[in-house]
Structure formats: structure tokens, C-alpha cells
Amino acid sequence: MVNIEIKARCADLGRAEDNLSALGAGPAGSFRQRDTYFRCPTGRLKLRELNPQEGYLIFYQREDIPGPKRSDYRTAATSDPEALRAILGQVLGTGAEVTKTRQVWLWENVRIHLDEVDGLGSFLELEAVTDSAAATESQTRVEALMRALEIDPEHLVCGSYGDLIAK
To answer: Tell me: the pLDDT tens digits for 12-71?
Structure first.
């Protein structure tokens, strides 16, 4: 699967919510998540735990650049994330662990994440779910949302939350 995405620091999540509402975006839920990153020779591999019976193994590859970028990813669901985390940690080694509260909003083909990341602060992510043929159109949508959400270039973040925690 393919996303066009950005991550940015966000000083005011309430203002972001107001701007999203004005655009016609709608809230889709709020979640407490734990992401465990594993050592991986290429790309990034993380286990996202939503609760003791629900998790997702996510492998993705993307450039670490600050602006809109393509991310190629695959996911697999698990009903036993704790056991999977233990096995992957033993086999691959564990990197960073990230806990966060995430509000998810939807606008057209874009998922908007308003994140409060433990130890890091507030962030906003835009992920336009697309395919290779529509990547240019999705990038245009992401750029339009960046303007509407008042995301300045200096707010953009290059890497993952795991990278930021590890620093």
C-alpha cells in the first residue's frame, strides 16, 4: 500500500481541530497506542498495540525528508500483540517504544492524526491513502491541508517517533 505523508510538531491541537472542522473533516475515533520498533536491516518495523487482543505489525519504507513523501507499507493484524512483541524482540532486537494518544480525523482520502506523544509533545500527521497512479493528486491534497492547518516548513519532522525517542 502507498501513503503520501507528513509529520509536524503542533503547538495547538485545539486550533488544528477547529481548522479540520471548518474544512469538513470528521473525527473517526481516539486511541491509546503503544508502538514498539524492532531492529530491521531496511525500512522500519513496528508493532502497534491498541489493546491486549488487538495489534498490527507494520513494515514501511520512506525517505527521511521533512516535506510530503511517499511511504510504502504493509500491515498484518494480530490478536496476541504481547506474544508477537516478545518473539520479534528476541529475534530482531527491540528499538524504541512509543506511547501516544491519537485522535483520527478523515478528509477525503487523507487520515489526519492529532497525536500527544509521551515524552515528545504534540504532533500532527497527514496520510493520504493512495496508489502509485494517484500519488501526485494525493500530494496536492496533503499540501492543501498543510496550508489549511497552518503547518510551516520549520514544523516538519523527518523521521519516526521512534527516531525522536531514540535521540
So the answer is: 999 999 999 999 999 999 999 999 999 999 999 999 999 999 999 999 999 999 899 999
Question: d(Cα 145, Cα 107) in Å, to the nearest integer?
Answer: 9
Q: Going along the chain, which residue ranges are E strands?
A: 2-9, 26-38, 44-51, 54-62, 69-78, 94-107, 110-117, 121-130
All cell numbers assigned to 13: 491541537
For residue 141, give the C-alpha cell.
491534497
CB 73 within 8 A of CB 160: no
Residues 27, 13 contacting (CB under 8 angstroms): no
Q: Which domains does the chain have, with CATH numbers?
A: 2-166 (2.40.320.10)
This prediction has a pTM of 0.94
Return the residue matching grid coordinates 519516526. Answer: 160
pLDDT number for residue 19? 96
Q: CA 116, CA 46: separation in Å to the nearest integer?
A: 18
Give the C-alpha separation, 151 to 83, whole Å.
39
List pLDDT tens digits, range 124-134: 999 999 988 88
